[in-house]
Amino acid sequence: MAAYLVMMTPRLLEIYRVLKTSGSLYLHCDPISSHYLKIILDRIFGVRHFRNEITWSYKGGGRSNKHFARKHDTIFFYTKSDTWTFNYQDIMVDRTNQTYFTDENGDRYWLKYGKRYYLKHEGKVPEDWWADIDPLHGPYNERLGYPTQKPMALLDRIIRASSSEGDIVLDPFCGCGTTLVAAEQLGRKWIGIDISTDAIEITEKRLGEAFPGIKLETR
Ligand SMILES: C[S@@+](CC[C@H](N)C(=O)[O-])C[C@H]1O[C@@H](n2cnc3c(N)ncnc32)[C@H](O)[C@@H]1O
Fold this sequence. Notes:
binds S-adenosylmethionine; three-stranded antiparallel beta sheet; four-stranded mixed beta sheet
């Protein structure tokens, strides 16, 4: 763990340095490292720029009968300053378990103690726990066999929320390139970094297949 934190700290400092003042950081980790990383992130970004600890929970895969099944990851969300992009209208999810009524003008409302509360939007901003995104266990179409591959839906939500078309998305640990594919699909510019040549080869192939004719600059 100490070696991991020593590796991560200078990288997080550099990420902070290159991040736009209005930019955001999302750091995905597991519960073994999350509390240590949060201390480092609080120090670099400032506690007041901590926005969310998102719990991505899921089912599937193996489980032990010696403790509760470990079925969540943590995603920290920090901003660099007090002004940041958050496109809540682009990430709305369905309201569930809610009974709506429609008034004479066709506007929808729900009732609480006999009082009408009108819906401002058709959905709701997701909570900071995400249980609606499946991990890539089993025969999912998007599965490439890269061990740490994340679902597109996860990156899609993050990129939609915290960037706009034309913005730059950086994934400095890009693995098989899920962030880059999601960013390209959403009309963002992007940069991916990975220490593994396998990761870069898989990413190049994946981007080439998903976006024929795409021009990649690899260094
Ligand atoms: C958790 S995976 C990323 C998964 C990726 N987000 C995806 O969906 O495919 C972490 C990646 O970080 C890379 N990595 C590890 N140490 C690194 C370093 N010092 N610099 C750059 N990449 C590194 C690994 O090769 C691995 O591909």
